[in-house]
Amino acid sequence: MIARWQRAFVLFTLAAMAGWLAWQWPQSPGRAVLGAALPLGIYLLVMALEFALMHAANRRDAAPRARLPQVLAAWWAEVRTGLAVFCWRQPFRHRALPDWLPAQPTGRRGVVLVHGFMCNRGLWLPWLPLLRERGHAHVAVNLEPAMGSIDAYANIIEDAVRQVTAATGQAPVLLCHSMGGLAVRAWLRAHQADGRVHRVLTLGTPHGGTWLGRFSRAVNGRQMSLAGDWVVALQRAEPAGRAALFTCWYSNCDNIVFPATTAALAGAEHRFVEGVAHVQMAFDPGVVRGCLEEIGRG
Fold first, then answer.
1. Going from the N-terminus, what domains does the chain have, and what CATH number goes with each?
2. Which tens digit of pLDDT belongs to each residue from 203-232?
3. Tell me: the pLDDT tens digits for 86-140?
């Protein structure tokens, strides 16, 4: 569903830009270029607003506040990363690399990859060759319906965990970006599956909700409201010790999950990274290296 939506949006936008250029160029090349660049300008401004709100909200947060040069660098990195993910990998390349479940166990622990809000398995494409060359069986899920309840994703994750466990004979590591970490917590609650997972690594997951959640009209978006009913109920339902399964990566330049420490989970192991934006976090070299090391220790 996400691939269809994003593919249609990208193709419509490109067609509109091309049509405007063809119509206006004979009359005014300058006006033609400015009009065609309008979608990119809107994207840059919306992204800038996210970072401005994030920087203001983090003023009173316990995490070290980012310096302005870090915020600007993170904004530019997120602009480039967002275009690659939402305009290419997810709409056009999400099926380019299949899941890998070898017929014979490699002796290495497997991985289930769980994407976040408005994403699909295409987010993880750069990770899949890295996991395969290290011998880690893996399944990257698609969470559907795209704007449904986070609770509805539990059976999708359950199926992926069963596949990877069957292929390896070992409990898998679950690697989650953003909302994906909440979906895994919902799966743990629904299936009481603590004994069937080795480790859960979350990257920019709004464990305590996020300030931006108040603006969402999607069911799962509203569930991620800062200190909202759903995240509070999830926390209360979790047994003591479950959080010890988690390693939570969070950043003071996360433009979607803020204030910064809402991506931390009480009782979990925490990894703070400076100056890294939300989608960028899934591809930051230090984060990737740290996650691969943790997966490899399993």
1. 111-296 (3.40.50.1820)
2. 999 999 999 999 999 999 999 999 999 999
3. 999 999 999 999 999 999 999 999 999 999 999 999 999 999 999 999 999 999 9
CA distances from 33 to 42, 47, 79 (A): 15, 21, 20
